[in-house]
Amino acid sequence: MTWIDTHCHLDAPEFDADRAAVLARARAAGVAMLVLPAVLAGHFDAVRALAHQQGLAYALGIHPLFVDRSADADLDRLADELHRHRGDPRLVAVGEIGLDHFVPGLDLARQARFYTAQLKLARDAGLPVILHVRRSADALLQGLRRIVVAGGIAHAFNGSRVQADLFTGLGFRLGFGGTLTFERALQIRKLAAELPASALVLETDAPDIPPQWLYRSAADRAAGLTHRNEPAELPRIAASLAALRGWTLDQTAAVTRANALSALPRLAALVAADAALPPPGAQAP
Q1: DSSP codes of every residue in 152-209
Q2: Is 167 a domain residue?
Q3: Residue 198 lies inside a defined structural domain of this protein
Q4: What CATH number did the domain enclosing 268 receive?
């Protein structure tokens, strides 16, 4: 069985020392495709280069937590990049974009302006979006009703069932990852168990949102213990989803893979091309 990690920050500095080994472990675990969302305009080139070097997919966008560090001109740069690379099959979405109403002290008006501008760019490019959703689901939905885009993924979804249904009604899939492995994450686990199967995609958000078995307390982290997440953890996260749904792992792989390809249509050609390649070490005929 093969898996798609629909949200992985493989370009993050946490992977600088062993990025090739991280990717090798992911592929050995059956994670055949990763989607790499950018978070800053200054990261666009690196994310695109990494996707091309490693046969992955990428998205371009400005993350809401970084709009205070972004110039207005970065929106123009994003528009230029989306136009210049509009024929790139590895460019599968605009993201990571959205709103964060959790972290205190952020400029919410600037976030909203960047979010609206990036929705318009996605609409004009005909691309889906990868949304950052943190205590902001209703505001995100308001934007999506005003500016219609080609669906996408609500990453790390942690809203209500009503909000989940509204996102899926607008053509979105909902991303589930390490958080659903925690028994105390009652709302997320309930959603993962009860939402229509067609709503679910899997993600790691590596190096962030570690699953329960990687979690370290603040004291542990201060003592130097790591809790870096990796894309190789995706099948074990999927096993938690399978247990909640009463599915086999094969079912879980098939359902979440089909949903990822539906949410990000350009992935289908990339995955098909990868499937046509001979396995590592195979002899050419």
Answers
A1: EEEET--S-HHHHHHHHHTTEEEEE-GGGGSTT-HHHHHHHHHS-GGGEEE---TTSS
A2: yes
A3: yes
A4: 3.20.20.140
Domains identified in the chain, total number: 1
User: What is the residue range of 32's domain?
Assistant: 3-275
For residue 255, pLDDT beyond 60: yes
The DSSP line for 135-163 is: S-HHHHHHHHHHS----EEEET--S-HHH
pTM of the model: 0.95
Residues 6 or more apart whose CB falls under 8 angstroms from that of 62 comprise 38, 39, 40, 41, 70, 74, 75, 78, 97, 114, 118
Dist CA 159 CA 133 (whole Å): 8
Tokens for 182, please give them.
């925690």
Per-residue pLDDT tens digits for 207-229? 999 999 998 787 776 676 768 99
